Input
Amino acid sequence: MKELELKYGCNPNQKPSRIFMENGSDLPIKVLNGRPGYINFLDAFNGWQLVRELKQATGLPAATSFKHVSPAGAAVGLPLSEIEKKIYWVADMGDLSPLASAYARARGADRMSSFGDFISLSDVCDVSTALLIKREVSDGVIAPGYEPEALEILKAKKKGGYNVIEIDPNYVPDPIERKQVFGVSFEQGRNELKIDEAFLNNMVTKNTVFSKQAKIDLMIALITLKYTQSNSVCYVKGGQAIGIGAGQQSRIHCTRLAGNKADNWYLRQNPKVLNLQFVDKLGRADRDNAIDVYISDDYMDVLADGIWENIFKVKPEVFTREEKRAWLDTLTDVALGSDAFFPFGDNIERAHRSGVTVIAQPGGSIRDDNVIEMCDKYGIAMCFTGLRLFHH
Output
């Protein structure tokens, strides 16, 4: 297949639309089911690059959950804790395969943002992963292959319209990439720089210790940022992104946005949240929304009389600001990556409040000394990668 006609572009009025190879060769993908759209393919191709590089860097199966050309979550296939199984709504699914665990973690980190996602998998999709995808609201999936039973499970999703794409894992794109904006052609060399532990050696703080897990988490953060719309910042813990701040004009806004998401991920593990008793009829998406509101300052939107009865069997106690802060103060061993330098120490102050203990960033700000000083104040270990990762 040398080209594929699409229903429309980014919006229904943008026609005609297609994907094709400029050199006349065959496309490196096969559509096994459904009819993927323009944005679906943007998410699929960006997500596939991300999980392929995560697999290469860590040796572990990887998955990402994409929305609007940025990842909502990304993770490698490490086992889930009992608490993680509960907050990701997979406690009833038994033992998950490593690939399914990767997707459960990628989807679960920010379930509100992942709703209606496009999934990318580094490995052949197995039945365990397909069964997990089956129960989530999603637009489609891309993987290097599918087990026959897994493919049948996915084909039945969305009344037979679920988008399933198979990509050639051996496909290597041309070293020069092009696109047009306002009729003007842009051309640049592909960002083929391989991210590995070698980029984590230039320590600039008093604390120079990166544990093995910290190095894995920092590589996950940097690779995730490589395919996140800039400006971007990524918090990672235990092999999964727990907060991604994408597309902000200000670096501190990225840090705050991603930090707030990381905080929400951890607040969901508090016993007050774990013990919420939802009415039986409430679906997972409504539960996710209720939890998101309950742990926010707008908690009365779900606790007011006449409202809570439709959500909970028993009216929950207020999760006070003091209780939340005390719980967040126990979060630690979080890794932070940034796609460009931190211009001010306020980014480090905000990161510290979300448990960050290790940082990788390019460096190169005229205020690097201030940023380093702030890291030393909190005992944070930071390296300069010299590697900017803007993605547009």
Remarks:
- The longest strand covers residues 70-76.
- DSSP finds 14 helices and 15 strands in the chain.
- Residues 194-267+328-384 form a domain with the Cytidine Deaminase; domain 2 fold (CATH 3.40.140.20).
- The mean pLDDT is 96.
